[in-house]
Amino acid sequence: MTFYMKRCIIELTEKVEHIRIKRGEDMLRKIEVVIIFIIIFIMYHNFSYSVFTPNVYQSEDKKVLAYAELNAATITLASGQRIHATNVKGDTQMKIDVIQAPIEVVLVIDTSGSMNQTRMNAAKESACALVENLFDVAENVQISLVRFASAASTLVTKSSDKEEVTEAINGLSASGGTYMLDGLELAEGIFSTNDEGNSEQSEKFSYLIILTDGATGEASQCYDKLIELESNNIKIYDILVDMGNTSAFSRDGKDAGTIYSNISSEELTEIYDEIYGEICSEVIDNSVGNFEETGKNYFVTGNDMYMFLDQELIQGAKLQLEYVINIKAAFNCFKVEIQSEMDDKLGFEESSKMLTEDKSNADYGWAINENLTYKKGHKKVISICAESDSPYVIKKGKKYEAKLLLTCLLSTKDDTNYANSIVFRLNGEEDRTYGLQSMEVNIVPPFGGNRNQSTIIILIIIVLILCASILITYLYRIHYKKRIK
């Protein structure tokens, strides 16, 4: 009995020791996992610090796209020595000035005899205006042209050459009957063939714009074809010149695309302009390029910039910060108001020159406006108010740009964090007031070496800790095995 009890105690002791070993190993493994994640985090930020992500805003309806960024910065010591001459932008520029999404437009134009000279001239003028607008604001656009009368033909296929498309449009003339189905079938073939000639629909924004002035004999078949094209994510616009809706475009209360009926020749430009605005609303998008650091003794992360400066050099040094604000809208803007809300430590002068060009704050329209400039919670506000309807301040799909230079006399008595945020309003409408996140600049002491060297040292220390934890795990296991024996 005594022998049996001793055996049970030994087995129980072994189980307890095994549990302790297991728990100890699990704890050490968790520590190892945490250390590995720390290494990954540091390595990730080591690379991401060299990339500046601009402060981008896009409205939910995609009708407004804007960004603000720190464009350049300098620090000039009290002795007059400039130790920073930093241009934040690198070789890759942000592509906000042009639409990035691929756009494919097929124009199908009626050239039958009923399209008299007045109608044809108006159709050509308005179509050319649409083409020019699209090429002006879109970097990746392809336009095709199909004509139909007694027969149909493709005059331009997926062209990225504005002159080629406008020349083909201007060469149209009216004669013959109205057989629209042939034109729709040619358009379908263009949409279903990608750039390499394969029958695969690539990811892009696709639009079919039809202009006609007469009924067609294959109305039912035309409607079915339009519904089929619509099902392939092709947006359709039907422009009916001096004619009401017909069964070729609508059946049982269901329209095949957006229909503009009874449109006069004089209204064509306005209709094409409206279609252009809708295209802009759908495809205005941003493609943010990388902003590589080009200066020394600083790094950027997100909207924040960190500039290195020894503590004893701060007193009396002058900080200059140049910001750039870009606004793009899918509608015409006759009034643009921009407010810069900045820390009370930052100063503003209308005569201050930009760091990257020979323009001043006043040249861009920045001014102290008593109605808008105020102090509240250690914040100051300055503003731009640009207003014009001929030409518009922002033409539909185009870009408005303003730069701003702010300065500050550094002091060891103040904290060295400087923030600036942007609010802008379009056309004086409260529901078109937008805000951008605050952009911050921080003056910090150097690491005692460059950032890459500091990061390498930190990584070596963490790797040593990881190796030590693995060794402890191994010794821990051996120790308890010996105790069991």
Short description:
The chain has 485 residues and is α+β, with helices and mostly antiparallel strands. The protein is 32% helix and 29% strand.
Strand content: 25-35%
Based on DSSP secondary structure assignment, what is the total number of beta strands?
A: 20
Radius of gyration: 33 Å
* Number of discrete helical segments: 8
Q: Please report the distance between the alpha carbons of the first and last residues.
A: 23 Å
Main sheet characteristics:
7 strands, mixed
> Please, what is the average pLDDT?
77
**Helix and strand string, N-terminal first?**
HEEEEHEEHHEHEEEEHEEHEEEEEEEH
Structural class determined from secondary elements? alpha+beta
Spans where pLDDT lies below 50 across 5 or more residues? 46-52, 90-97, 196-202, 286-295, 373-378, 448-452
